[in-house]
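Board notes (copied after class):
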Amino acid sequence: MDQMQIRDFLVLCYGALGGSISGKTKLQKMAYFLSLLTDFEAGYKPHYYGPYSAAVADANLELKALGFISEMNTTYGYDHRGFERARYDYDLTEDGASLLEKKKKEFALQWDRLNSCAQSINFTIDKNYMTLSIAAKTYYILSKSGEKELSYDSIRKSAGSLGWDVNEKEIDQAVQLLEQMNIARRCAAEIT
């Protein structure tokens, strides 16, 4: 069997998440958590909105260019500098759904695991992508620290060094979300 590539992983993510994802940030964070839960290396690095994978972004563009996903841009105002704010929503096309069925068979074991993980994540996630983003940031810091325990101050300091601004309340909400997703049951114990 061929080794699963990032494009295969992303198609399976779309399938496991119901065929659509609302927003680039949510796409990145859902793929981040699914890559963690399924031990798929997707190349995540620190970025302004939390862990970000250029490989996931490139694979998404490739899937769009090949006609496997459609993209809808929704404009919802302007920021304080006059730049347009927009959200990009993605859906599997008919061809994308056919590709998904092929990939589900080709990578049956990975599909079963990824789909199971996605169901547990989807069950607990609210529509606030900022909470999801902060949860990703918190987990990223915890996983990269190498420490058994971190204080709120340590997390905030690490976040600051990455250009992320998080407070104690946001960290608490992030840990609760991580626990609900069964990603980091140990997170509560790791933050003192």
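Comment from the instructor: Residues 95 and 192 are 49 Å apart (CA to CA). The mean pLDDT is 84.
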